[in-house]
Design brief:
It is a single chain. The protein is mainly alpha-helical. The protein folds into two domains: 2-54; 57-124, no CATH class. It has helices spanning 9-29, 35-51, 63-71, 78-89, 97-107, 109-124, and strands at 2-4, 53-55, 57-58, 90-92. A two-stranded antiparallel ribbon has the order 1-2. Helix 1 runs antiparallel to helix 2 (35-51), helix 4 (78-89) packs across helix 5 (97-107) and helix 5 packs across helix 6.
Length: 145
């Protein structure tokens, strides 16, 4: 999943787009005073927004795995437990629990909740282990011994 570390730039981009649109409307009545400059600023902000993208890969964890991760670190608060579990589940880029907490603060509630939601979805969608590859046990009813 992709999150943006500078998501606040969206509001600036929207405001600039509106100013550019207004400038374009004024060009019909007379020459514009700064449409090119606004377009350059828009392109610069759009690039900054694009560069702030962070792709995060998350693996699901079974309930037992989540408990084991938390038990390895005694004395955690509930928030710290969540950071420890998420740090373990995020496979790329790797994060420490402290970095997960900083990421949450930097991204804001909306984007960070997307990460948490994806983690929960990954935990729910974990494939069940199948033992179909093991040889079947023979019984006298099956013609075995």
């Amino acid at each position: 999943m992709t999150v943006y570390q500078k998501a606040g730039l969206i509001a600036d981009l929207d405001a600039l787009a509106e100013r550019i649109e207004n400038e374009d409307g004024e060009e019909v009545d007379g020459p514009s005073m700064g449409g090119g400059n606004l377009r350059a600023k828009y392109a610069d902000l759009a690039q900054k927004f694009h560069d702030s993208a962070l792709t995060i890969r998350i693996e699901g964890r079974s309930e037992r795995e989540r408990e084991d991760v938390v038990l390895r670190v005694p004395g955690l608060t509930p928030d710290q437990r969540g950071a420890v579990v998420l740090a373990d589940a995020i496979t790329s880029p790797k994060f420490t629990p402290a970095q997960v907490e900083k990421l949450a603060a930097k991204l804001g509630e909306v984007q960070f909740s997307r990460i948490v939601t994806r983690f929960h979805e990954a935990c729910e969608d974990m494939p069940a282990v199948s033992a179909d590859f093991l040889p079947k046990r023979s019984t006298p009813d099956d013609g075995g011994e």
